Amino acid sequence: MTDLEMPSNETPILETRQIYKRYQSGTTTLEVLRGVDFSLEQGGFLAVVGQSGSGKSTLLHVMGLLDAPDSGEVWINGQRIDNLPARDKDRLRNNSIGMVFQAYHLLPEFTALENVLAPLLIRHGIVNWFSQKRAAQEQAEALLERFGLSDRLHHRPRQLSGGEMQRVAIARALITKPQVLLADEPTGNLDEESGAGIIEALAELNRDNGLSIVLVTHDADIASQARGIVRLAAGTVDMMNPGATGSAA
Amino acid sequence: MSSYSRFIVPTLAADAAIGAMYKLLLCWRYLRTRWIALASVISVTLGVATMIVVNAVMAGFSNEMQTRIHGILSDIVFESHSLSGFQDPQWHIDEIKRAAGDQIAGMTPTVAVPAMLSFQVRGQWVTRQVMFIGIDPKTHAQVSDFGRYLQHPANREQLSFDLREGGYDTIDSQNPTETPTRPALEHAGWPHRRMRVNRERLWKERLDSKKSAENAPARSVDQQVDAVLAATSPRGDSSETPPEAAATNEKRTNPFQTARPNQGHVMDLAEEQFTGIVPGIGLASFRNRQGVDQFLSLPGDDVKITFPTAGTPPKAVSDNFTIVDFYESKMSEYDSNFVFVPIDALQRMRGMIDPQTGIPSVNSIQIRLKPDAKLNEVRDRLREVFPADLYAIATWRDKQGPLLSAVDMEMAVLNILLFLIIAVAGFGILAIFFMIVVEKTRDIGILKALGATSSGIAGIFLGYGLFLGLVGAGAGLVLGLSITQNINQIRQAVEWCTGSRVFDPSIYYFFQIPTIIDPVTISWIIAGAVAIAIGSSVLPAVRAARLHAVEALRHD
């Protein structure tokens, strides 16, 4: 699946150093992250658990460059990325980070196939696109087929079930062959069976393709399927599962 | 490091130059799923269409008016301030030639004085105020389109102040297909004159016989008619003096009579004419609501004209004239005001010829320039040579300046007002786009999460605005052009539906609404409309671009 060049095992694929993030609402300041140190090794699969409001989604957004920390550093593959210009961050989001959300976040105007192609549509200019279109389409079809959606290629999101939509979203995250996949409560809106299928798919991607995954969940059962668990509480990393490939500060 | 370099190296230069593919795709999808946005475009369409139609019609009117004014006036008018004019037109013509001869195509002298025109309609005398203009029939047609506006084909070729033996156009030669015919002109000319004179003689005969009936035994009506016909037949020996001829005889006491060639001659009105004149058609006819011309008098009829002499103080003198043709420039101001007469006759009657040297005076010299000559430059050159306190030198544009600039002003105001309509449409686009941005907030968050740049997001909405602008302006262009092309049919349809005249030819003096489609104007209108559409999408686009990805994703 991945043809990424493998960096040395000492370099974590994703790392945060002393991340602070606070939200101001009126006169009250809410400190969501208070010096989070987090690290995911190449090929790792970490579940981030914590109660609602513990800051796990915020951490994921900071790692996915959707949100900027008030202080602290985000490193990907040995490069600091939180201080890059906006355009380079956009490019990183497009190329290197795959994201899956609880609410699927598919574009309603696009078909399943087009949704999977969306990151490539964003990456390529019009002229370039027509030379890439064929290969990209084949790749997207292959991904959807892998997730059992080969008969749903031209369906709009609203014609798909929740599980199907989430699988489309995963396929979309994978089409760019990212270095790391960030999943934010991917099973939150799904029934148990569909949710289990999604987690199974993620575990398979990690196991078979060596994809590095960060999975945010509040469900202990789901978290247990990851190779390591990081618990966030009161804005700090509270406890690392001893078997995790991550390391606590 | 090695893999990171991949991120910052631009994928392809073309990506930056041309927008990314998703923008185009999303624009198209939004357009297909949001027809409400097209509603805002309807006002752009209507605004553009209205602007195109109004500009075409206004340009048509303006052009028609300018052509007519220019057709009537020569390029440059060289005038004396005084009605008495200046002496020796030939010397002036030579001087003008010396000043700007290289740009001049032709010149002709004219004499113009205010006068009163009197003619009989059903036995009643009608008097009108006119401008009495003496022209040189040989050269006048060279300096203006004068000849084009006459009703007799031969006069259009070469004007003659001799009455023609019929053959006047019964259709409008300038607009043969559109206008109603003028059957009254069929018998105009000598046949009309003979018939009229004979009718008058018959009438007089009857009156006389009525008077004599008291003394003499009554004759049968047949005998009376035979007697009259014998007396008035063209070959017949006319011993009577008709009233008009009697009036001429009275003029023996007129001091100018000495110069007249027909002194002492008793005219046979059925065979001879007075000095020919060409009055404007509006003086002798009126146009009814159907656009049909009703004639009060015809070529062949006689009129009296009273005008001032050239002396100081001017004295009013009057004479008889015979209408030989009508002048129809289709500018009602001229058509109901001008009466043309041979210049030498007018000079003689006004005493404008120096009795010792025989050198005449004229009021003005009409100058026609060569096609590529510069109007204002020639005017300025002549103004340098001739003192302004003696001569007024003006171009045809100067003379009609207020009228032409009024039309221009009207056009400018209308354009501003109509452009405001499109600007209002712009606010519609603005509102609808803001709505779409709010509605699509989550999608914008998704796109940002997937790596779309802020400028790329803005580009979606700007492109959307551009597309709507193009669609609106394009539809407006098609609508506007088709209305312009068929404006006269539309006018007819509206008239048929409402039963009232939308475009009254008795007011406008043309039967078709004239239009001119100017590609430059249309390009400006389209460009303005598209610019407004794009401009209105800027604010929503910027707002979309500034959305925070995480907040946008949380938006419901």
Brief characterization of the structure:
Helices cover 35% and strands 27% of the residues of chain A. Chain A has 249 residues and is an alpha/beta fold.
Assign a percent range to the helix content of chain A: 25-40%
Compute the gyration radius of chain B: what is it?
A: 36 Å
Please report which band the strand proportion of chain A falls in: under 5%, 5-15%, 15-25%, 25-35%, 35-45% or over 45%: 25-35%
Percentage of residues in strands of chain B: 5-15%
Observed structural traits:
heterodimer, A: 249 residues, alpha/beta, globular, disordered C terminus, B: 556 residues, alpha+beta, six-stranded mixed beta barrel, two-stranded antiparallel ribbon, 22 helices, disordered N terminus
How are the SSEs placed, and which strands pair?
The complex is a heterodimer of chains A (249) and B (556).
Chain A: E1 12-25, E2 28-41, E3 45-49, H1 56-63, E4 71-76, E5 79-80, H2 86-95, E6 97-100, H3 112-123, H4 126-146, H5 162-174, E7 180-184, H6 192-209, E8 212-216, H7 220-223, E9 228-233, E10 236-240
Parallel strand pairs in A: 3-8, 3-9, 6-7, 7-8
Antiparallel strand pairs in A: 1-2, 1-4, 4-5, 9-10
Helix pairs in contact in A: 3-4, 3-5, 5-6
Chain B: H1 2-8, H2 13-17, H3 21-33, H4 36-72, E1 76-80, E2 86-87, H5 89-100, E3 104-121, E4 124-135, H6 140-143, H7 153-157, H8 190-213, H9 221-232, H10 243-250, E5 275-279, H11 281-284, E6 285-287, E7 293-295, E8 302-308, E9 316-323, H12 332-335, E10 338-342, H13 343-350, E11 361-362, E12 364-369, H14 375-385, E13 391-395, H15 396-399, H16 401-439, H17 441-449, H18 454-485, H19 487-498, H20 505-508, H21 519-546, H22 549-554
Parallel strand pairs in B: 4-10, 5-9
Antiparallel strand pairs in B: 1-12, 1-13, 2-11, 3-4, 3-8, 3-12, 5-10, 6-7, 8-9
Helix pairs in contact in B: 3-18, 4-16, 4-18, 4-21, 8-9, 16-21, 18-21
Notes on the structure:
The complex is a heterodimer of chains A (249) and B (556). Chain A is an alpha/beta fold and 249 residues long. Helix content of chain A is 35%, strand content 27%. In chain A, a hairpin with a 2-residue loop joins strand 4 and strand 5. Chain B folds into 2 domains: 13-67 and 403-554, no CATH class; 74-399, no CATH class. In chain B, strand 8 and strand 9 (316-323) form a beta hairpin. Chain B is 52% helix and 15% strand. Chain B is an alpha+beta fold and 556 residues long. Chains A and B meet through helix 2, helix 3 and helix 4 of A and helix 1, helix 2, helix 3, helix 17 and helix 22 of B.
